[in-house]
Design brief:
Two copies of one chain form a homodimer. By secondary structure, chain A is mainly alpha-helical. The first copy, chain A, has two domains: about 50 residues, Orthogonal Bundle (Arc Repressor Mutant, subunit A), CATH 1.10.10.60; about 120 residues. Chain A contains nine helices and no strands. The longest helix of chain A has 24 residues. The relative contact order of chain A is 0.11. At the A-B interface, helix 6, helix 8 and helix 9 of A face helix 6, helix 8 and helix 9 of B. The first copy, chain A, binds a DNA duplex (30 and 30 nucleotides) through helix 1 and helix 3.
Chain lengths: ~190, ~190
DNA sequence: ATCATGACTGACCGATCGGCCAGTTTTCAA
DNA sequence: TTGAAAACTGGCCGATCGGTCAGTCATGAT
C-alpha cells in the first residue's frame, strides 16, 4: 500500500533486463536456434533456472528481445493509418529506415526465425505489422510496386545485418538512396 | 577393369541422389539446423545410418545440396573474369538473376546458415564467389555502388525466398527491373 | 555354388537441448 | 528480530541430436 507501487522491484527488473540484453547479443551473433538457455544464463551471470524463473520459456525470451522493435513498428503502422497514400509512403520510407537501423539487431534475429515463423505466436503481430508497412511503402496497389516494396525491404533488412562496423548515419544514407531509386521517389 | 567404369553403380547413385533431393526440400522448407538426419532419412526412404554411409556427416549433405548452384556461380565468376567492366556488369546482372531464380532453393538454405557460415568450409568457395560476383555487379569501385550492389543482392535473394507460387519468368522480370533501377542501368 | 564386396540397418553412444522442481538464500515489511 | 514472500539455484528428467559400429542382406564375378 505504498505510493510507489509503480517502482518495480529493483532486483527483479535488473536481472530481467540483463537476461534480455545478453540474449539479444547472442541471438544476433549466433541465431536464435543456436543459442541455448545455458548460453544466455552464463552471459547474464545467473543460472539457467533463473532465466526460466523470469520467462516462461525460450520463446518468451525471444518475445522480450523483439518487444521494443515490435512496439515501434506497431506505432508506425498506427501513425500511417490516417495519412494519405503519398504521405504514408513518405513516412514509411523515412521511418522504416530508421527502425531497421536502430533495431538492426532484431533484423538478424528475425532472419534466423523465418523458416518457422508461422508457428511462433510470439512474433505474429510484428510480422503482420511488417506486411502492413510493406503496403504503405509501395504507395500503390500496382502489383509491380508492391513487389518492389518487398524487394526494398529485403535489401534494407539484409543491409542492416552484420553491419556492426558501419555508423548509423552511413547506413541511413545508403538505405535512403536505395529505397528512392527502387521506388522511383527521387 | 571394365570399359564402363564411368557408369556409377546404379544403386549407390540412386540412393545418393534421393537423399540429396529430399534434403534440399527439407532444408528449404525448415532450414538446415532444424532438419535432422532422421528427417532426411525418413523422407528418402532409408535409415539414418544409410545417410551417414553415403555422406561423411551432415555438413557433407549440405555441400552436396549446394554443389550444383556453387558450380554455376563458379562458372559465372570465371566467365566474367576476362570481360570489360561494363560487359562484366551486364553479364552479372543477367546471370545473377538467372542463377538466383533457378537455384532459389539454395538461397533459402544459405540464409539459414549465414550466422555460422564462417565455420563451414563446405560452403566457403560459394560465399567467396558470391562476393566476387557482387563486385562485378557494382560495375565500379565507388563504395556507394558497391553497397548498392550488395543491397541489390539482398533484395534479389530475399525475393526468391518462399516464391514457390511465382513463375520463373515473373520472378526474372521483377528482379530485372529492380536491379536496373538500383544500379541505374535502364 | 561360392564368396568377396558393396549397400544397408538396428542398436547404441555421449552430448546437449528445453524444461521442471525441491530446496536454499536474500530481501524486506511488520 | 522475525518470518513469509521473492529471488535464485543445483540437479535431474525425457527427448533428440549427430555420429559409430557390428552385423545382415543383396549383388555379381568367378
Amino acid at each position: 500500500m505504498m505510493a510507489d507501487m509503480a517502482v518495480t522491484t529493483p532486483a527483479r527488473e535488473r536481472t530481467r533486463r540483463e537476461i534480455v540484453r545478453q540474449a539479444m547479443d547472442l541471438f544476433q551473433a549466433g541465431g536464435y536456434n543456436a543459442t541455448s538457455l545455458q548460453d544466455i544464463a552464463t552471459a547474464a551471470g545467473c543460472s539457467k533456472a533463473t532465466v526460466l524463473y523470469h520467462f516462461s520459456g525460450k520463446p518468451a525470451v525471444l518475445a522480450a528481445v523483439l518487444e521494443p522493435a515490435a512496439a515501434d513498428v506497431a506505432a508506425l503502422v498506427k501513425a500511417a493509418a490516417g495519412l494519405s497514400r503519398a504521405d504514408a509512403q513518405e513516412l514509411a520510407i523515412q521511418s522504416f529506415i530508421d527502425l531497421a537501423v536502430v533495431h538492426r539487431g532484431v533484423v538478424d534475429v528475425l532472419q534466423d526465425i523465418l523458416p518457422v515463423i508461422e508457428q511462433m505466436p510470439e512474433v505474429a503481430q510484428l510480422v503482420s505489422d511488417g506486411m502492413q508497412l510493406s503496403g504503405y511503402l509501395a504507395g500503390s496497389d500496382d502489383p509491380l510496386e508492391q513487389d518492389l516494396a518487398k524487394f526494398a525491404i529485403n535489401g534494407l533488412l539484409g543491409e542492416c545485418r552484420h553491419s556492426g562496423e558501419r555508423t548509423d548515419d552511413d547506413l541511413r544514407r545508403l538505405c535512403d538512396i536505395a529505397l528512392r531509386r527502387l521506388l522511383r521517389r527521387a
